[in-house]
Amino acid sequence: MLGLSNTVVILVEPSGPLNVGSVARLCENFGIKELRLVSPRCNPMDKDAQLLATKGEKFLREAKIFPTLLDALVDCRRVVATCGRVHHGTIPLYSPEVALPWLLKRSEDVLTALVFGREDRGLTNDELRLAQKVLTLKSSPSYPSLNLSHAVAVVLYELHRLTDQLNHSTKGNSSIETEPAYPLELEECMSDAQELLLEIGFLLDHSAHARMAKVRALLNRAVIRSEEISLIRGMIRQIRWAIFSRAS
Amino acid sequence: MLGLSNTVVILVEPSGPLNVGSVARLCENFGIKELRLVSPRCNPMDKDAQLLATKGEKFLREAKIFPTLLDALVDCRRVVATCGRVHHGTIPLYSPEVALPWLLKRSEDVLTALVFGREDRGLTNDELRLAQKVLTLKSSPSYPSLNLSHAVAVVLYELHRLTDQLNHSTKGNSSIETEPAYPLELEECMSDAQELLLEIGFLLDHSAHARMAKVRALLNRAVIRSEEISLIRGMIRQIRWAIFSRAS
User: Fold this and answer.
1) Domain A183-247 belongs to what architecture?
2) Which residue of A67, A123, A173, A187 could cross-link B98, Cys pair, CB 3.0 to 4.6 Å?
3) Nearest to A114 by CA among A9, A217, A40, A245
4) Continuous segment of H or E residues that includes residue A214
C-alpha cells in the first residue's frame, strides 16, 4: 500500500519560524516520515514555530539537521525538488502530475524526498541537480511565488491525491451514492401533484403538461430518491386536507 | 478564457490574523477577484495579517465585511463550500475534481464563491446548505484537519490546475449551462414554503428545520434555477389562496 510514510520533507535554509512550524503541521497532516532541515536560518524550536505546528510539534522536535542538501539526501533513492520558475534554462521542469507519480513508483522500503528551497531564493542550480526530477507548481508566469508552506501544502496534497488515485483507481466522487427512486414512483407522485394543481387552478388544462414537464425536469436533475418522493406525497396529502377538509 | 478572476474567497468568522493574511497572499497568487469576511473575529488590518499578506495586502485593505454568509453570497450564482469531514450524514461531499469543474462551467459574467469555515469549527450545516456543492479535501480519515490557509492554498491550486486543463484541452467543452438561482432566491422560497407547511400542519415546530433541510438538499442537488423557483413560489401562492380564500 503506497503512502507518504516513506517520504521525507526537506527544507533548505528556511528563515521563517512560522513557515517551519506550518510545514511541521503539514507533515503531521499527511503522515510524512520525517522533516529534515539543511542549515536552518531559524530555530525549529522557536515558540512561533511550535505555535503553528500544533499537533505536528514532534516533527519539529525530531527534525534532523544537516549542513548540506547532499548530506540530507544520504539515504533517499528518489528525489523530487521544487522550483518556483515556469522555465529553466538547463534543467527540465515537470508538472506535479508527471513528477509525483514517478516518486510513487518506488519499491517497498525505499525512502523518497521532497525538497523545498529558501523563501527568497529557492534552490541553487547545484541543489536542483541533486534531484532526479524537478517540479514546478507554476503553469503560467502570471502570479508571484507561493509562500513556502503553501507550496508544501499543495505538493503534499497532490502527492496524497495521486497516491489515493493509484490505491483505489476508481474515478469519481467520494460521496456514497444513494440509489434513485424507480420511475414509477416519480410518475405516481407527478400524477398526484398534477391533479391537485389542476384542482386549485395553478395548472390550466392546456398548459398542464408543459408545466409539469418543468417540475419533472427539476426532480430528474436531482435524481430524486424514494424517501424524497414520500416527503412530497406527504405534503400533497396534507395540502389537500387543508384545502378540502377545513371548516371555513 | 476561464480564470479565477470571477471567483471570490469567503472566510466565515476567521479568528487568526496570520491565517487571514496568508489567505490574502493566496488571493494575490491566484488572481482571485475579492476576499470577503463574514463577522471576522480578528482585524484584517492587524500587523500580523499585513506581514503575511506581502504582495496581497490590497486584498486585506479592500476586503468586504458581511454580518452573515447569506449576505456575503448576495451576488454569487455558483457556490462551493468546504468541509473538513470525510463523510457527512445529510449533505453530499464531493472531491475537488468533481466540485471545482462545476464551478468553472459558469457563464461569462457570473460570480462564483469558495467558502471556508472557522479554524476550530468549520461551517455550520445551515451554512453548508447555502452552497450548491460542498467539497472535502479529505479522502481518508487518518489525518487531522489542515490549517485554514493550507486548505485555501490547495483548493485554489486545484481550481487553477483544472482551469488550465480546461483552457488547453482539445476536447469539446461543456455545453452552455443555465446558471443556478442566487442563494437568497432559494432562501426566500424555502422561508415561504416552510411558513405554509407549518400553517397547514405538515411541519411541526420541532421537526420543521430537519424536514426543510431535506427539501433544501433535494433542490441543491438539482442546482435549482431562478425560473424553477418562480414556478414553486407560484404554486405556494396558489395553494395559499386555495386554502385561505375559498368559501367552504
Assistant:
1) Orthogonal Bundle (1.10)
2) A173
3) A9
4) helix A208-221
CATH number of B7-168: 3.40.1280.10
pLDDT tens per residue across all 248 residues of chain B: 356 889 999 999 999 999 999 999 999 999 999 999 999 999 999 999 999 999 999 999 999 999 999 999 999 999 999 998 877 878 889 889 889 988 888 888 889 999 999 999 999 999 999 999 999 987 555 556 889 999 999 999 999 988 877 776 644 444 456 788 999 999 999 999 999 999 999 999 999 999 999 999 999 988 899 999 999 999 999 999 999 876 44
CB B200 within 8 A of CB B226: no
A191 three-class SS: helix
Partners of B64 in the beta sheet?
B36
Distance from first CA to last CA of chain B, Å, rounded? 60
Residue with cell 536560518: A41
What is the average pLDDT score of chain A?
87
The grid coordinates of residue A179 equal 440509489
Cell numbers found for residue A82: 521544487
Selecting from B142, B222, B235 the residue whose C-beta is nearest the C-beta of A222 gives B222
Which of B55, B86, B199 is the closest to A144 by Cβ? B55
Q: Which of B8, B1, B16 is nearest to B33 (CA)?
A: B8
Sheet holding B34-38, edge to edge: B64-66, B34-38, B7-12, B111-116, B76-83, B133-136, B93-94
What is the rounded distance in angstroms from the CA atom of residue B92 to the CA atom of residue B217? 9
Q: Structural domain boundaries of chain A? A: 7-168, 183-247
Single out the residue of A221, A214, A209 nearest to residue B177, CA to CA: A221
Question: Which of B147, B219, B235 shows the shortest C-beta gap to A22?
Answer: B147
Alpha helical stretches, state H, chain B: 17-29, 47-53, 57-61, 69-72, 96-104, 125-128, 148-168, 183-199, 208-221, 226-244
Of residues A178, A182, A69, the one with CA closest to residue A128: A69
Which residues does residue A34 pair with via DSSP β-bridges, in sequence order? Answer: A8
Which residues of B are less than 8 Å from A228 in CB distance?
Answer: 214, 218
Give the residue from chain B lying closest to A155, CA to CA.
B154
Q: Is A147 in contact with B221 (Cβ distance < 8 A)?
A: no
Pairing of strands B34-38, B7-12: parallel
Q: How far is B210 from chain A (nearest CA, A)?
A: 12
Chain B nearest-CA residue for A240: B243
- Is the pTM value of this prediction over 0.95? no
What's the complex ipTM? 0.75
